[in-house]
Amino acid sequence: MERKTLDKGTYGYIKYYKKRKFLYTSILLVTLLAIFIFGYKIDKRNECAIISVVMIIPMSKYLVALLISLPYKSMDSKDHKVIEEKKGNGCISYDFIFTSGEKIMNADCVYVDDKNITLLVTNRKQDLDYISKYIQEYCEGRLYNRKAVAYSDKEKFIDAIKGNNNKRTDENSEIAAEIFMLQI
Asked: How are beta strands 147-151 and 116-120 bridged, if at all?
């Protein structure tokens, strides 16, 4: 059986990310409990307790990542197909979860062209102005001259990205790669 791996920015990444973090957390928890129970019931030494306590650190790292990603999901496959048909020549990526010092944010789709960084954020609880400002400040800090705009309406997002026949440049790909680094 072939293992399926998804890279950041591909459609369906959030679902894959949650499954992977759940699997790692479960494996570490079962291993931790097995070592602790073995040390407590059979071995009667403190080394097993120390090992199981130290194993809590990586397990909690995966658990926190899982808990952060739980409220978010990928966009519908119908919407994904429509966006793929209508997109221009810029770089497009899907399924983002950004974290800043104050908020955790989600963007369903990020489109980078020669002038703009266009985001689709369908979660109504998200602050579109804050997300736009956060992405724009991040890019300005790396000396990229792009304006970040976030839309909650899919139709407005498609209108903003369709018909963009600019050539796909290496700088657009570079900006998209920089934005990947923001993603958890």
From this structure: parallel
In degrees and rounded to multiples of 5, residue 28 shows phi and psi of: -65, -40
Q: Is 13 left (phi over 0), alpha (psi -120 to 50) or beta?
A: alpha
Q: Two tokens at 2?
A: 């072939």
Condensed to tens digits (0 to 9), the pLDDT of residues 152-181 reads 999 999 888 876 655 556 677 777 777 767
74's tokens: 């990928």
* Cβ atoms of 82 and 158 closer than 8 Å: yes
Q: Which two three-digit tokens encode residue 55?
A: 């194993």
Residue type for position 178: E
What residues does each domain of the chain span?
13-69, 77-180
Query: Running DSSP on this structure, what letter comes out for residue 125?
Result: T
Structure tokens at 150: 């976030």
